[in-house]
Amino acid sequence: MRSLPRSSFVLSLALGALLLGGCRLKPFSELEDSAPVLSLDAIDGYPSGRFGEVFAAYGGSTSLGGVGRIAGSAGAGSPFLVFDVWTGGEIGSLNVRFDGCDDIPEDCEEGAGAALAHVPVWRGMRDCVLLSATRIGVGPSETEGTLRIQCEETAATTERLQRVSGVGFGTDLAALPEGHPLGAAIIGAPEAAGGGALYRLPQDGIAPVELDLPAMLTLSEGAGLGTALAVAPLPDDAFALDGAAALVLAAAPGEERVVVLAVGEADDGMTGVPQTTARLLGCLDGSAMRSPSAPLDQGSGMAAGDLDGDGMPEVIVGDAAAGSVRVARLADLGMAAGCGTPSDSDDPTTTTISCPSVEGVGCEGFGASAAVGDFDADGMGDLVVGAPSATADGTASGAVFVLPGGDPAGAMALYPAEADEGALIGEGVGVVPTQLESGGRAEVVAGAPGAGKIYVFLCTGLPGDAPGGTERCLEVASGS
Amino acid sequence: MVDTSSHGGGRTRRAPGRAATRSGGAAALAWAIGLGLLVGAAAPVAAQSERELLQRAREAMERGQEAYLAQSYAEAAASFMAAYEAKPFSAFLYNAGIAYERNGDVERAIELYARYLDEEPDAADSEEVRERLARLRELVGDDTPDGTAPDGTTPDGTTPDGTTPDGTAPDGTTPDGTTPDGTAPDGTAPDGTAPDGTAPDGTAPDGTTPSGTGPAIGATPQRTLVDAPERQMKSLLSVETVPGDARVTLRQGDRTVATGPSPFAATLDEGEYEISVEHPDYRTVSRSMRIRPGKVYVAILEMSQGEFLGYLRVVTDPPGADVYIDDREAGAVGQTPFQNPVTTGEHHVWIERPGYETEERDVEVAIGEDVTQQLQLTRVTYGRIRIVGNVPGAIVLVDGQEVGEVPYEGQHEAGPHRITVRHDGMKDWEELVDIQRGQLTPIRVRLRPAVSRSGAWATASLGVIVLGGGIALGLLGDGLETDLANDRDAGRLADDDPRILRGKIFNGAANAAFGVAGLLGLLSLYYFVRDPLPDSEGTVLEPRDWTFVPHIDPVHRAGGAQLNWSF
């Protein structure tokens, strides 16, 4: 009688058991799915490795509901990509929703990502992305730029706005709140004569309108006003403006100052017709704001937002060289404080926030970028500051610090556990809404152009926001 | 009258070629008293004629005895003489002498007594007969001490040599028994008939004999011896033996009455006698016998070469068992059903049959006793197997225990046993075999080549290596998973964390390794199982009894067996 070797039988059983029980792909997929840090990468064939240098995060809408989106690019001369990162309380596909090179490849050749801004509604179309096609060194002149706008409903159509030549038009963009009487966005033109100019894009127009800057603002040639912009809504009727107004921060790196403006409509007292008015609230000196032409690891960031919950935004200006940010309350501005000559010692009162001490994380570059958002859903604005040169867990990948209410106490450092050296995480920071349906919740977005990524930190680690766990911090924090 | 005596239940061991008479007893001696027992189946013609003469003498003796008792002495004397003519035994002469003497024929009586003494000079009663003879001679005036007349003749007219002076016998016959004219002295013709028509036995119708030198008894008046005493007549004992050259001795008490080679005859008086027959090659036979007067006894002896025996029967179920008696080393004396005479006394009997328990019995056999031992043999509790196969030297295992090599034979407890035949490079043969009690179960095994499993082992080894690699990768993946989980819990895990991909790669590789290992395992299993070659074959033949001859040394308690069988 033939006998089957028992050893082989047992061995086969063992192999079979290991085969059946050894499948371990799922845990990693689960880890991946529950990862609290989303990483957005450029699509294959993207022409630049510096994706993430420029991005705009916003809350969009679709027929199926709200969506958190991020539009990003590699800066001037690169196409932009739009990602859905959060949809209806769930992680989005993280795939590129649409990009600026779908139907006009030549745009990509020219470059379109010098600056990006979200326009909630433009000419009746929702969720538009205003983009600057400024390409340094390309075109009729080095400062020639072109603005295009692409909307969700007509993703395949890109509208070309009226060109403004010779002023560095579109070097930076800043979106205004939906329905703001000033229009859809503020456009910087730092090459304009007189130290730079600011434009606004009307809600339904294609022709940008230059803002009349306050007469009290005196800038020297080469100040570069509008190199960087930041906008925050102001309470109605603030600063004697009619109705809705906006706080506009415009960097003038040539003079190492940030000009703070309250922009709205006001009766000029003569025509009886409300006129767009920009009131000079003050100037903050000291830091060279980031410039598209400056190296990535140089320059500082600025932001405007309500950190103390008084309804009035604060002005945050980074000082990457010093590793700190200064926070100025609007109440401490006024009367064009600090807007004299740079040498004047009339600077307004500010609060300097040094880089918080977080174990394992350095502070190099702290202040290179800043943004304000409610990251812990407590109704109060929290400050996020980028430190793209910081060393996190021994890797100089950069990090992002979150300061609840702008208070360094309880600050958390955000960085992915495995990031490349020189990723420059925090070169730019932003805020993307995620709890779209319930409102009030935002997540930290950090560009990492050194790694060609944009990170979305779904938790900040702030108290009550993101306890340790296996689920996404957002889900935990939201109780979902 | 016939007087017979026999011993039942015996059987005589006979020499080859000898005639056999079976009476079923243990005695080696067959006695026949009287001629009626002369029934020798293969007696020689000469012996048969002799026995006819003896029968004739016996009949004449019977008639003489009856006549004597009827006081017809002359007739009695004639009958006795007729008997003497048939068989010239001296007893007839003596008896005839008595009859003559009672009949008053003294001369004739003297003559016959004298002849009796001549023939039996050493007879036990010779002295008495001489005295009687002397008295009779005195009565008739015969002074011859020895009974002879002055003319030199004896009282019967014969010379000492038994002849008359003219050369004839007293009865006128020549030495050949005839008269000179060719007739018998009594005038009978040579054919035995008398001129007067008397019967050949010489008796006249009146009971007298016409013969004799003297006048016939009935015809010649004789002196009556009123003082003639009653005398016992002599008897005749004839002894024949088989074989015929035995020595016969008659004893009466311590006295030897007569002795001589057989055939043997003796004239005897009434009394108890001891007959002894001896032969160097046969057992001596002794027998007591009472002799009555005036009888003819004939004894025919068939001597036995053996002892006096009893009879032993051994019957077994099943038959065919070997029977050993008293000495096993001497070998079996037969097989059951066994029946054979045995010496009397106690015997130890072994009954053995291959495949059955040996039975032992102590039996006691008396002379002539027929002892029967009937046994139901019980099979032994073990059986034997014999395994032959095409691969000599293949290992034989019984219930997992190695017991020998092919060809193999051995005994094992009866019942089911798992028999395995194994050899390197060959497929095992295994089967559950029911070993029968006391029987041989032959098994033929043909081992077939086994498929080489080296490829299977190589595949399995490779599978193990791959499995080990998979386990290592899995462990690495586990480590990564732990790290990633920690980072996730700390909020630092990015969905594109390269370790996730690495972990996936590790785990994918591990899974692939597991899969490959599993496939290799299955493949190895297939290789292990795959077997295009035929299985080993075995045939368990019908159990059969075996021929088993045990050799047991009762002294040294050593044992052995010789097996004989064939497939």
Structure write-up:
The complex is a heterodimer of chains A (480) and B (567). With 480 residues, chain A is mainly beta. Helices cover 8% and strands 36% of the residues of chain A. Chain A has four helices and 29 strands. In chain A, the strands form seven sheets. In chain A, strands 2, 3, 4, 5 and 6 form a five-stranded antiparallel beta sheet that branches. The longest helix of chain A has 16 residues, at 6-21. Chain B has a four-stranded antiparallel beta sheet, with no helix packed on it. By secondary structure, chain B is of the alpha+beta class. Chain B has helices at residues 45-69, 73-86, 90-102, 106-119, 126-140, 454-489, 498-529, and strands at residues 3-5, 31-33, 235-242, 247-252, 255-261, 264-268, 271-279, 282-291, 296-302, 309-317, 322-325, 334-335, 338-343, 345-352, 359-365, 370-376, 382-389, 395-398, 401-405, 408-413, 415-422, 429-435, 440-446, 537-540, 547-553, 558-564. Classes of the chains: A mainly beta (480), B alpha+beta (567). At the A-B interface, helix 1, helix 2, strand 1 and strand 29 of A face strand 22, helix 6 and helix 7 of B.
Using a beta-carbon cutoff below 8 angstroms, give the protein chain pair with the largest interface and the number of residues from each chain.
A-B, 49 and 55 residues
Named CATH topology of the domain at 381-451 and 536-567 in chain B = Immunoglobulin-like
Mean pLDDT of chain A: 80
SS field, number of helical segments of chain B: 7
Largest sheet of chain A: 5 strands, antiparallel
* Main sheet attributes: strand count, strand direction, barrel closure of chain B: 4 strands, antiparallel
Which structural class is indicated by helix and strand composition of chain A? mainly beta
By oligomeric state, this entry counts as heterodimer
User: Tally of extended strands of chain B?
Assistant: 26
The portion of residues forming beta strands of chain A comes to 35-45%
